[in-house]
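Appendix B. Raw example, untouched.
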Amino acid sequence: MVNINIQNIITFIEINLDDPNLPNIDEFISEYQQIKPIEDPIFWLSCGAFICLMSGLIFADIMKSKINKWATYKISPIPLEDPRTISSWFSFFTGLTIIFVSALSIINFSIIKSLIFSTIISILFGISMWKAIKDLLIQVKEGTVKEIDDFF
């Protein structure tokens, strides 16, 4: 019984596709440009997002452990410049650069110009955020944490 139903459905599809009044199906299906995965900006956008996510989580875990050590053992969260911290910070902003380059290439910016722009933006964000986090950890160490309104 199941075989007869399947056979009837297949026959129905064949008959409907052979209908002479059916418009040319090629008119409805547009041709998609085939892009190699290595050249696909969506692929690189996802890679950049993944790199940012993973290195951001690693950096957050490092900061959490530094603050926990400060709270329990009174071990200073400074110096911030250990290899794990710097590498996770650098990889976060490398992922951010990849995201910016991919997003700009989607809207037809040249790769060189978008790479230069993205690198400059990532460096500026990275340095300013590094200084802000370092200042915050110095304030935590000294016990003089300012409110956010005091920075503006």
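End of appendix B.
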